Amino acid sequence: MKIKKILVSQPKPQNEKSPYFELAKKHNLKIDFRSFIHIEGIAAKEFRQSRINISSHSAVIFTSKTAIDHFFRICEEMRVPIPDSLKYFCVSGSIANYLQKYIVYRKRKVFVGINNFKGLMDLILKHNKEKFLVPLSDMHKPEIPEQLDKNKINYSIAILYRTICSDLSDLSDVNYDILVFFSPSGIKSLLKNFPDFKQNNTKIAAFGPTTTRAVKKAGLHLHIEAPTSKAPSMTMALEQYITNHNKNNKQA
Predict the structure, then answer these.
(1) DSSP 3-state helix, strand, coil percentages of the chain (rounded to 5)?
(2) How far apart are CA 77 and CA 206, in angstroms?
(3) What is the pLDDT of residues 207-230, one digit of tens each?
(4) In 111-127, which positions are buried (b, 16+ CB within 10 angstroms) versus exposed (e)?
(5) Could you tell me the fold of the domain covering 40-163?
């Protein structure tokens, strides 16, 4: 059977030139988009129980735009002043640029990594006398504290938001040829919403090593993995798989 229907566990792209739309047009596919998870901010009252003093930190590490939003939200809710001397360490250029939503970029000390936390560590080590605050979700990559501990960095993890499984009951079922996941939380949401889910002929696509591990841990069979050297993006991985799959089925 040819691939006809795909469900991507993310919001629908706003950009009309998204490669997902090009993929759908090229292969005559029906691609649906649906967030399997959503973010819920932790209230100031709950955060106070962690006894983390934001003002005692001289630098903050941002690994996502969501972390930026919730850092400035909690500071506003708790009326924590943000000094001009605070240093910002961002894992990528796009995250650093997003800071401009809250600060006058040129007046602050902003350090930018090369799209992964390991690359950002080189910059952090050059400023290892700072006390770092790391705003994160309750479900964050263990790599972050592991790298900071390994390099004996003085830091505090601030859990400012939670990753929550969305209610997918309106889907009624997940009868798609391919399900596409981008985080372990997406797999968790699938199994929570559909505890009797049987994979059968459904193909599973996973982005990133932690998502790949979550698929296998859940006892599901992984068909499409990204990023790879030949497919650095999920749409490229889907393109390659669908082309080969449909070609083989046509010959059969």
Answers:
(1) 40, 20, 40
(2) 37
(3) 988 899 999 999 999 999 999 999
(4) bbbeeebeebbebbeee
(5) Rossmann fold (3.40.50)
Question: Tell me: domain 5-36+169-251, CATH 3.40.50.10090, correct?
Answer: yes
Q: Distance (Å, rounded) from C-alpha 218 to C-alpha 169?
A: 20
> Taking a C-beta distance cutoff of 8 angstroms, is the pair 31, 202 a contact?
no
The end-to-end CA distance of the chain, in Å, is 10
Mean pLDDT of the chain: 92
- Report whether 59 contacts 132 (CB < 8 A): yes
Q: Where are the domains of the chain?
A: 5-36+169-251, 40-163
Q: Could you tell me where the DSSP H helices lie in the chain?
A: 19-27, 44-48, 65-77, 93-98, 117-126, 143-150, 184-193, 209-217, 234-251
Q: What are phi and psi of 41, to 5 degrees?
A: -70, 145
| Equal fold, 5-36+169-251 vs 40-163 | yes
H/E stretch holding 132:
strand 132-137
pLDDT tens digits for range 59-96: 999 999 999 999 999 999 999 999 999 999 999 998 99
- Rounded Cα distance between 135 and 88, Å, is 12
Q: Is residue 113 a contact partner of residue 119, using CB atoms and an 8 Å limit?
A: yes
pLDDT band at 250 (very low <50, low <70, confident <90, very high): low
